[in-house]
C-alpha cells in the first residue's frame, strides 16, 4: 500500500465511528437495496451485468444509501457486474455479499477494487440458529463466535464498511444472537443486520427482537442496526416499519419486493409509507419518490417479473380516485411518478 493510500486509510478509520454516530443521531432511515443480489435469487429473475448497472443507476437516482451489488464468490457474472459498477455508481455504497470465509472476502476485494474506500464494503453472513449450527455448519456456539470474530476482523483489515448478519436470526436464541452481534462489533463490524430469513415474524415479535438487541448489545453505539425481512406471511413491510419505529437505522429491501420464495420487503412500499407518515414515525427517509415509478417498471421489464395491478404503490390500481379521492391520485401522478 502506498504512503498516500496508508494515510487515506488511517484518516478514514478515524472518521468511521464519527460517521456512524452522525447517522444514528440524525434519526434518518437509510434504505439499502438488495434487488441485484437477493432479488435476483427469485426464479426467472436473472439479470445480465449491463442490466444490473442500469438498475443500479436508477437506484442511485432514487437516493438509496447502499447497494448489495452481488456475491462475487458465487459466479464470474457477479464479479463482472460489480466491476462494471465501480467508478460508475458514485453516491451509494457498493457492497458485496460474503460468507464467513476469507476467500469470499478476497473475491469481494478484487471485485470492488477501484471504488473509493468510503463507497465500498462487504456484508458477511453466518448461520446462527440451532438448525443452522447443527445441520448446516456442524459447529458449536463457541466455534460460531470464533468464526465471526476471525472473519469480521479479516474483512475490517480490507474494508472500512463491514456488515455482519446472523443467518436465520429470528430463530436464534436471543442471548446467543446478542453475543454474536457483540463479537462482530468488537471485531470491526460497522453494521449489524437482523434478518428474518424464513419470513415468519409478526410486527410485535420483530419489534421485541430490536428491543432485545438494543438492550443487550453493549457496543451497539459503534454500529448501525439494519433489518432484512422476507415476505412469506405478507408482513415484510409491516415488520420493517415496526423496527423503524423501534429505532432501526437501515432497512434492506428490493424493488417490487422480488426475491426468493414470497420475496422481500418492497423498497417502494417502505419509502412511501415513511414519507406519508413522517410525523408518526418521527423519522425521515431520503428518497426521490418521483423515481419510484420508472424504477419499478424497469425492474419488472428487465427481470421479466411483472407485478399485479393490485400491488401497493407500484400497481396501476394503487391510489385510484375511487379509493383515496382525486387529491391522492394527483399525489400518485406527480410525486410517486407512476
Strand order of the largest sheet: 1-2-3-4-5-6-7-8
> Structural class of the secondary structure composition?
alpha/beta
How many E strands?
Answer: 8
Secondary-structure element series: HEHEHEHEHHEHEHEHEHHHHH
Q: State the helical fraction.
A: 40-55%
Q: Tell me the strand percentage band.
A: 5-15%
Rg from C-alpha positions?
19 Å
Shape designation: globular
End-to-end gap? 48 Å
Largest sheet: 8 strands, parallel, barrel
Sequence stretches where pLDDT stays below 50 over 5 or more residues:
323-331
Number of helical segments with 4 or more residues: 14
> How much is the average pLDDT?
92
Question: Your description of this structure?
Answer:
The chain is an alpha/beta fold and 338 residues long. The protein has an eight-stranded parallel beta barrel with strand order 1-2-3-4-5-6-7-8, surrounded by nine helices. Strand 2, helix 3 and strand 3 form a beta-alpha-beta unit. Helix 2 packs across helix 3 and helix 3 packs across helix 4. About 3% of the residues have low confidence.
In short:
This protein has helices spanning 3-26, 49-62, 76-85, 102-111, 130-137, 141-156, 174-187, 203-216, 236-246, 267-276, 278-281, 292-303, 321-324, 326-336, and strands at 30-33, 66-70, 93-99, 120-127, 161-167, 191-196, 224-229, 250-253. The chain is an alpha/beta fold and 338 residues long.
